[in-house]
Specification:
- The protein has 284 residues and is α/β, with parallel strands linked by helices.
- The protein folds into 2 domains: 241 residues, 3-Layer(aba) Sandwich (Rossmann fold), CATH 3.40.50.720; 34 residues.
- It contains 10 helices and 9 strands.
- The strands form 2 sheets. It has a 7-stranded parallel sheet, with helices on both faces. A two-stranded parallel sheet has the order 5-8.
- Strand 6, helix 5 and strand 7 form a beta-alpha-beta unit.
- Helix 1 crosses helix 7, helix 3 packs parallel to helix 4 and helix 4 packs parallel to helix 5.
- It is globular.
- It starts with 5 loop residues before the first strand and ends with a helix.
Length: 284
């Protein structure tokens, strides 16, 4: 059996998860391939049956999460790289959005990711090695109209990952947060629901951006195959990045966000510092 690292990937039926699993198996890595319906990933297993393990996994089901991690560790001996990829989108202005849909999205995009991380960490801590890869989005750094609640799930992933890295880095564990822009996955297709009740006042903001995203679904500039290779490159680098932007649009929007933050910080610096007690500020 190959001595290459064992990767555990959630959400392999489509998109990044599928392409990453395919790339790894083609290159003789050992891979735990998961999806809510394991039948949908059997074709991936056939790429390299010796090194693949297919498991049914709904990341919102705590019992399934624990069982899947235990089966993976029993089969391969360990999990070296956990990729938290499972999740979906939702379109609607903040005021338009359905709370039940939004809560379901948070369960998958954030709480499922958090539960998977907690399940994999104990053995990584014991070995003092491992990598957690959390798939966020440029929408986890920059808010966009029409996908505000999706942004909120991905901002949560970025904050969670930032804190996690500070906790586990001294234990020999790396954290990589992947922040893509538009890629040719199913994210903007059938995977993402729309708010049922729309409000005309948001047509030129939320509505326009939603239409633009839907309109270029299938024609996005990002290549999931290249993204998969980039993720492997980052994980295997000597110093893996905490934040891995993927796509030119991601880099452009992240830099614009940095400029906007800097502008506000500098313009309001006096007010910011003036909020401290004067006698304490003088000694800080």
């Amino acid at each position: 059996m190959s001595e290459k690292k064992v990767w555990f990937i959630t959400g392999c039926s489509t998109g990044f998860g599928r392409e990453l699993a395919k790339h790894l198996l083609e290159n003789d890595y050992r891979v735990v391939v998961t999806a809510r319906n394991a039948d949908k990933v059997q074709d991936l297993v056939e790429i390299n049956q010796e090194n693949a393990l297919a498991l049914a996994l709904d990341v919102t089901d705590q019992a399934q999460v624990s069982e899947a991690v235990a089966k993976a560790e029993a089969h391969f001996g360990q999990i070296d790289v956990l990729v938290n990829n499972a999740g979906f989108g939702y379109f609607g202005a903040i005021e338009e959005s359905d709370e039940r849909e939004v809560r379901a999205m948070f369960e998958a995009n954030f709480w499922g990711l958090a539960e998977m991380t907690r399940a994999a960490l104990p053995k990584m801590r014991e070995r003092r090695s491992g990598t957690i890869v959390n798939i966020s989005s440029i929408g986890g750094l920059v808010g966009f109209p029409g996908v505000g609640y999706y942004n909120a799930t991905k901002f949560a992933v970025v904050g969670f990952s930032d804190a996690l890295q500070k906790e586990v880095a001294p234990l020999g564990i790396n954290v990589v947060t992947v922040e893509p822009s538009g890629f040719r996955t199913d994210w903007a297709g059938r995977s993402a629901n729309d708010a049922i009740n729309t409000i005309a006042d948001y047509a030129e903001t939320a509505g326009a951006n939603q239409a633009a995203i839907r309109g270029y679904s299938g024609n996005q500039p990002g290549d999931p195959v290249r993204a998969a290779k980039a993720i492997v490159q980052a994980v295997e680098s000597e110093n893996p990045p905490l934040n891995l932007l993927l796509g030119r649009a991601a880099l452009k929007n992240a830099r614009l966000k940095l400029e906007s933050l800097q502008k506000d910080f500098d313009a309001w610096a006096d007010v910011t510092e003036g909020a401290d007690f004067p006698e304490l500020a003088a000694n800080s």
